[in-house]
Write a structure and sequence with these properties.
Number of helices: 12
Helix content: 40-55%
Radius of gyration: 18 Å
Order of helices and strands: EHEHEHEHEHHEHEHEHHHH
Distance between the termini: 38 Å
Number of strands: 8
Length: 292
C-alpha cells in the first residue's frame, strides 16, 4: 500500500436521542474536518464506542462514513472483534464499502498466545485485498506487542503498518527505522510532537475530532524547524487533554463538539453524561486555548 501520512481523526459515533446513529451530525463532523485539511478518518475505533455497537451497527457506520467521504480522503475501519471468523466477516464488509485499509484491536479477555495473535492478524489480512493496520493499544487491550512480535507480523506483505497507541517511543522509533515503507501512526495525542520528532509522519487521534487544526499546525511547525512554536501548540492541546482525562475523554469530546455547534448526543450506557461542573471546566479550557 502507499504509505499514509497526515492527520486522521478517530471518529466519534454521533447518536440521536433514540440511540440511533445521527447521519446529520456525522456529515457535519466529516465536512468540517475535511475543510481543516485532514488526510483521512479512522472509523469504528475505541473513540467510536465500537464495543458498545452491534456488528450490524458497526457495518452501517462504515457504510455511512465511506458514503459521506466518497473518495475525498482515506478511510481506515477498525474491524476488531474476538473471533477470527467475525473479524473476517467485518473486514470483507468494510472492503466492499470502499475503505482504504482495515485495522483491528487484538482479541482480548482470553489470554491468547503470541502465535495465536499473529494468526489472527494474518488470517484477516489474507482474507481481503486492502491492507491491515495492527492496533497496538496495551492500556485498553492488555496486549503489549514486543518488537519481535511486530517483526514477525510485518513479514506479511498484506500488513501495511501499525497504530501505535503506546507511550513507548523507543519501540516506535525502532520500528519506523526498520520498516520505512510501513505506515506507523502515533495514537496518543498528548505525545504527538514527540512522536513526530522520533520519525512519525501520521497520527490517529481522538481529539482531532474537534481540534485537528492544532495538530496540523504542530506538524507544519515541526517540519519547518520551529520547535518552540510547535511545543507551544502541543501545550495548548495538552491543557485540554488534562481536563479530558479527568472528566472522560469520549464524553468530553462529544461535549466539546456540541460547544462547537455539532450535537453528537451522549455516549452509550454504562457511560454516564458529564456533570455540569465538568462541562464548565471543559468550556473554560477550550475558551482559553482558542477552541471556542
Amino acid at each position: 500500500m502507499d504509505k499514509m501520512k497526515g492527520i486522521y481523526p478517530a471518529l466519534i459515533t454521533p447518536f440521536c436521542e433514540d440511540g440511533s446513529i445521527s447521519q446529520g451530525a456525522m456529515e457535519q463532523l466529516i465536512e468540517r474536518n475535511l475543510e481543516k485539511g485532514v488526510a483521512g478518518f479512522y472509523v469504528g475505533g475505541s473513540t467510536g464506542e465500537s464495543y458498545l455497537l452491534s456488528m450490524e451497527e458497526r457495518k452501517d457506520l462504515i457504510k455511512r462514513v465511506t458514503g459521506i467521504i466518497n473518495g475525498r480522503a482515506k478511510v481506515i475501519a477498525n474491524i476488531g472483534v474476538f473471533a477470527t471468523c467475525h473479524g473476517i466477516e467485518m473486514a470483507k464488509a468494510a472492503e466492499s464499502m470502499g475503505v482504504d485499509a482495515v485495522s483491528a484491536v487484538p482479541p482480548f479477555y482470553f489470554k491468547f498466545s503470541a502465535q495465536e495473535l499473529a494468526d489472527y492478524y494474518n488470517d484477516i489480512a489474507r482474507a481481503v485485498s486492502v491492507p491491515m493496520i495492527i492496533y497496538n493499544i496495551p492500556a485498553m487491550s492488555g496486549v503489549s506487542f514486543s518488537t519481535q512480535q511486530i517483526d514477525k507480523m510485518f513479514k506479511n506483505e498484506n500488513i501495511g503498518g501499525m497504530k501505535h497507541t503506546s507511550y513507548d517511543l523507543f519501540q516506535m522509533e525502532r520500528v519506523i527505522a526498520k520498516y520505512p515503507d510501513k505506515t506507523i501512526f502515533i495514537g496518543h495525542d498528548e505525545i504527538f510532537l514527540s512522536a513526530f520528532a522520533a520519525g512519525a509522519e501520521a497520527a490517529i487521534g481522538s481529539t482531532f475530532n474537534f481540534m485537528a487544526e492544532k495538530f496540523i499546525k504542530i506538524a507544519e511547525l515541526h517540519k519547518s524547524g520551529r520547535q518552540q512554536e510547535a511545543l507551544a501548540v502541543q501545550d495548548e492541546a495538552n491543557r485540554i487533554l488534562e481536563v479530558l482525562t479527568e472528566i472522560g475523554v469520549f464524553k468530553g469530546i462529544k461535549a466539546a463538539l456540541k460547544m462547537q455547534g455539532i450535537s453528537c448526543g451522549v455516549c452509550r450506557k454504562p457511560f454516564r453524561p458529564l456533570e455540569e461542573e465538568q462541562t464548565t471546566r471543559l468550556r473554560n479550557i477550550m475558551e482559553e486555548t482558542g477552541c471556542l
